[in-house]
Design goal:
alpha+beta; 5-stranded antiparallel sheet; about 25% strand; globular
């Protein structure tokens, strides 16, 4: 890991124009368990795979509700995510007390991006070793943002970060055209199926290791924001059953079609 003395701090560029401390922080994100975010024109969904350090410990919390209209999912160092989430909670509360309205999603994401970028310009600080997916809804509709340790933020239609997230991203890319018009339940199914794609063969999604967070705009004729809802534990059982049963039936249909083609 030695990089010719260019990785001793986060403010020194290498001759190739790289900041190795930021790259190391990005590696911490890649070591975290995978989280998936999906957005439609009415809702945003966060889905996360939880880990426990050992059999005697509880599962780590991966989705955090920040305010009534948005929350985040984390991959990487949970302690760094806790610092950033507490900062976001303070900013959300300050917006309500000062302006009497929920903070816009783009503004709060820019604020944590600026906070992270400052750490790459001060010798005594280090980058945050966590990646975030921030999902919520404001006056302009549902949004999904990705935050990276470098301080870069970008709005996404769908995204996956963490270990083995490439398989989840492949699923999201394959079904990208279906997300915009998807309803609440269909969006949850897509998120859970993408998460399942990232699992190794000896693992399954269960009520213990899976979390789902969702918010959106009510579709009952009035523009009303649905509060951010976190599904955890037994609450997630029906969502898992619906998503995985549909996925298995679709796989069976595809296999049947292939066998018919071979017979002909």
């Amino acid at each position: 890991m030695f990089r010719n003395n260019y990785d001793n701090d986060a403010v020194t560029f290498s001759p190739q124009g790289r900041i190795f401390q930021v790259e190391y922080a990005s590696e911490a994100v890649k070591q975290g368990s995978v989280v998936v975010g999906v957005a439609s024109t009415t809702h945003t969904v966060l889905v996360a795979l939880k880990r426990n350090a050992e059999d005697l410990s509880s599962y780590q919390k991966k989705i955090i509700g920040i305010d009534e209209h948005f929350g985040l999912a984390l991959a990487g160092l949970a302690s760094d995510a806790r610092v950033l989430s507490n900062f976001m909670k303070r900013q959300a509360l300050a917006s309500k007390m000062t302006y009497g309205r929920p903070i816009p999603l783009e503004r709060i994401v820019q604020q944590i991006g600026d906070r992270a970028q400052t750490s790459t310009q001060v010798y005594t600080k280090r980058p945050y070793g966590v990646g975030l997916l921030v999902a919520g809804v404001d006056e302009t509709g549902p949004h999904l943002f990705e935050f990276q340790p470098s301080g870069m933020t970008q709005e996404m239609v769908a995204c996956a970060i963490g270990a083995r997230s490439q398989m989840a991203r492949t699923y999201l890319e394959r079904h990208l055209d279906e997300f915009a018009g998807a309803g609440r339940e269909e969006l949850i199914k897509h998120g859970l199926r993408a998460l399942k794609e990232s699992l190794s063969q000896d693992r399954e999604l269960t009520i213990e290791n899976t979390s789902v967070g969702i918010t959106g705009v009510a579709t009952d004729g009035k523009r009303k924001i649905e509060s951010f809802k976190l599904y955890d534990g037994p609450e997630i059982g029906p969502l898992l059953e619906a998503a995985l049963e549909t996925s298995e039936s679709a796989a069976g249909t595809a296999q049947g079609a292939e066998s018919m083609e071979l017979d002909t």
